[in-house]
Structures are given as structure tokens and as C-alpha cells.
Amino acid sequence: MRNGILGAASAMFLVGTLAGVSGLVDAYPIYGGQAVRYLVAAVILLLITRVLGLRFVRLTLRESLCLGGLTLLGLVFFNVCVVESTRASGPALVGTILGTVPLWLALAGGRPAPRLLMGASVVVAGATLATGLGSGNLTSLLWSLGALVGEVAFSLLAIPLLPKLGAIRVSAYSTALAVPMLVVVGLVEEGTAMLREPTTAEALGFAYLAVVITVMAFFLWYTALPKLGPGLAGLFAGLIPVGAIVTGVVLGVATPTTYDLLGAGLVIAGIVLGLTAGRPSRASGGTSARTDDAAVPDRAPAAEVS
Questions:
Q1: I need a labelling partner for 295 at 20 to 30 A (CA). Which of 73, 146, 223, 251 fits?
Q2: What is the pLDDT of residue 278?
Q3: Any residues with CB less than 8 A from the CB of 74 and at least 6 apart, and which?
Q4: Confidence category of residue 92, pLDDT binned at 50, 70, 90
């Protein structure tokens, strides 16, 4: 469980550092940039599967639908909703709505222990305070709710896949599938202008998005999820604004306010409270804690990898 806690905390903190590099890629066409990000990440992850000797696994119809839903909702739809909500009223409202993710994941795990539910509620309060109480319009609210659905789907639809595929292949397959979907969205929204040669700063920004925010954070999160279950793992989503605050301080681009620090403190207190509830004997959906390293039947010599 300790490794799961460390993995979930690291994954969500890394996602929070996105705020520190977003300025590097703000001027690049949004959907084309996301397609590039996932393409680079998919290439890296697929190379890792080959190096580790993880063969291609044929999925059942149900598993294929889960993977397609995970990609469509958790990656593509999520990104579209965040972008459109931010365009409508700025980042505050969508950040506030996404701050409720720990509560929804706690509820999705079945009958949450009272301490877990209390901890998730405290994390939500802290994340909301650290993000800033959102203000916006109906359009922004609807897009924000769509982003919330995508964020929850990113975890819940992965749970049935992780025992069979492991964290690396779930990450690799979903990012690879996201590329053509984002290209379609980009062509509709931006046309052929969706891609252009990036500047040096933009290239560095996309490299960070692909390697750190996608490859590393996805792997850490999907490794931790079956070990902790959605309820406990979801607590650590509150670390996203904490990661943003710390990154701003380290880069010298922002100074945390009293509300930021109070919110970060509430997030940490909520996580500690939630962890005292312990972990259910089985993760939601009957998944085991098996990951790539334990998936012996799914391994094959490197020469057999397709």
C-alpha cells in the first residue's frame, strides 16, 4: 500500500506542475499540440513495452469498449471540455469543479468508510480553496461538468483493464488511440492550422507534457489505482493545485496567498484523514493489485512483441 500511496501522490503532484509549463505552449494551436503530446507519449510507451517484452494483448469486446471509452472520455473529451470551459470564463471554474473528483471517486468505490468520505470532503474543500472559488457562466459550467465526467472516467474505466494489461499498456494503448481522435477534433476546430513548427520553448514544453505529465504520471497513477482502489487513490487528486502552487514558487512566477496555503493544508489533512479509513479488501470492480511486473502470463520474449 505504501508504494501505491507514493505513486498516487507523485502522479497527481506531477499533473499539478502543468501550470508551470503551460505558458510555454499557450500560443500553439491547442488540439494540434495535444495530438503531438499524445503521439510522442505513445511512441515512448510503446517502445517501453517492447523493451520490457510486453506482448500485444487481444481484448474482449467489453475490454475494447472500456479502452475506447477511457480514451474518448478520459483523454479527448476531457481536454476539449477543459479548453472550452477556460475559453468561456477562465480556469477558475473548471479548476473548482475538478476539485470535487476525490469525492466522486470515493463514492464510486462502493460504500465508502465514513472517514474516507470525510477525508474526501476535506480534500475537496482544500482543493477548491487553493484553486480559487470559480466564477463563470452557464456555458463554462457545462463544459466543466463534462471535464469532471472525463476525469472520473479516466480512472474508473481503467480499473477493468489494469489486471490484464498493466499500467504501461493501458497508458500506451490509450495515448495511441487519442492521437487520431484529437486530429479529427483539431481539423474541425482549427483546420490545417492545427499544426506548425514549434519554437524551441514550445518544443521543450511539449516534451515535458509528453514525458512527465503523460508517460510518468499516467504510469504512476495506473500503478497505484488497483493497489489503493478509486476511493483512496482519489484523495490524491487534491494534490494537483498543491503541485501548481509549489511549481509557481520554485519557478518564481507566483507567490502563494494565504488562501493557497490554507487550501494546501486542508488537502494534506484530508488525505491523512482518508488514509486512516484503510483500504477495502478488493478494489472496485473486483480488480487485483497485479501490475505489469506481476503479469507473468502476459509476458513474452522481446522477439514475440508485435
A1: 73
A2: 60
A3: 150, 151, 153, 154, 155, 157, 158, 174
A4: low
Amino acid 136: pLDDT: 67
- How many other C-beta atoms lie within 10 A of the C-beta of residue 188? 10
pLDDT grade for 279, boundaries at 50, 70 and 90: low
Q: Of the candidates 74, 89, 227, 81, which has an alpha carbon nearest to the alpha carbon of residue 154?
A: 74
Q: How confident is the model at residue 40 (pLDDT cuts 50, 70, 90)?
A: very high
The partner residues of 54 in beta bridges, in order of sequence, read 299
Contacts of 201 (CB under 8 A, 6+ apart): 24
Grid cell digits, residue 149: 465526467
CA angle 164–167–173, rounded 5-degree value: 80
Q: Which residues are CB-neighbours of 220 under 8 A, at least 6 positions away? A: 7, 8, 10, 11, 14
Per-range mean pLDDT, top range of 81-85, 145-149, 158-162: 158-162
Q: What global pTM score does this model have?
A: 0.81
Q: Residue 191 in contact with residue 184, Cβ under 8 Å? A: no
Largest CA distance in the chain: 57
User: Looking at the predicted structure, is the pLDDT value of residue 25 above 90?
Assistant: no
Cell of 43: 511512441
* Alpha carbons 142 and 138: distance in angstroms, whole number: 6
**From CA 28, how far away is CA 186, in angstroms rounded?**
12
The whole-number pLDDT of residue 253 equals 62
- Rounded Cα distance between 60 and 146, Å, is 28
Contact 139, 194 (CB under 8 A): no
User: Cβ of 185: how many Cβ atoms within 10 Å?
Assistant: 21
Is residue 164 within 8 A of residue 112, CB to CB? The reply is: no
Is there a contact between 209 and 19 (Cβ–Cβ < 8 Å)? no
Cell of 250: 520554485
